[in-house]
């Protein structure tokens, strides 16, 4: 329960603060949440590797969206063509749910793809429309299509990495 609640709290802090033009509250919230998770994690090294991998996915997914001009992120410290720190903090926060709240998805790649492909873009849309943390360039479907496709690959990829690190068989087998 802490895993899900913590991730949602980080999301709201990051998105609301970004909408106000500030990245640091989301980065700080994610650092506290991820740090607490790592302090309690029995396989800390595996969790750290998942965080690094998730941030790398975020650099690609959100970096491409920004560089192509499909999504403009508020509170971007490095300029418009890269993923902002608060978005990367959200990817780090997501990573620590892979062996917790999302563990049951590790053996179901299709469920991860469906959740990522639908839930990912909806989260961005909520951040954009609810708090102004991002803006989709017209036509918005380009950015949403990219996010749907990228998240439909990224989430199952992260789940597979978590499953592989734990020594469980690949997708499709239990």
From TrEMBL:
Transmembrane regions listed in the UniProt entry: 12-38, 50-71, 83-102, 109-131, 143-164
Keywords for this protein: Membrane, Transmembrane, Transmembrane helix
The keyword Transmembrane helix belongs to this UniProt entry's keyword annotation: yes
UniProt key word Membrane: yes
Pfam families: DUF2878
Name under which the protein is recorded: DUF2878 domain-containing protein
Organism expressing this protein natively: Pseudoxanthomonas mexicana
């Amino acid at each position: 329960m802490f895993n899900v609640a913590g991730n949602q709290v980080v999301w709201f802090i990051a998105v609301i603060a970004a909408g106000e033009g500030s990245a640091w509250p989301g980065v700080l919230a994610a650092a506290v949440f991820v740090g607490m998770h790592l302090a309690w994690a029995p396989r800390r090294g595996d969790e750290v590797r998942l965080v690094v991998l998730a941030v790398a996915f975020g650099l690609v997914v959100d970096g491409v969206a920004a560089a192509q001009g499909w999504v403009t992120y508020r509170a971007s410290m490095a300029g418009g063509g890269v993923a902002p720190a608060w978005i990367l903090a959200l990817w780090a926060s997501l990573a620590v749910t892979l062996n917790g709240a999302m563990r049951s998805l590790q053996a179901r790649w299709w469920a991860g793809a469906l959740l990522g492909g639908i839930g990912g873009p909806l989260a961005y849309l909520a951040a954009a429309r609810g708090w102004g943390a991002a803006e989709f360039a017209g036509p918005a479907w380009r950015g949403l299509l990219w996010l749907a496709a990228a998240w439909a690959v990224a989430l199952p990829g992260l789940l597979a990495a978590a499953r592989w690190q734990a020594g469980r068989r690949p997708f499709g087998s239990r």
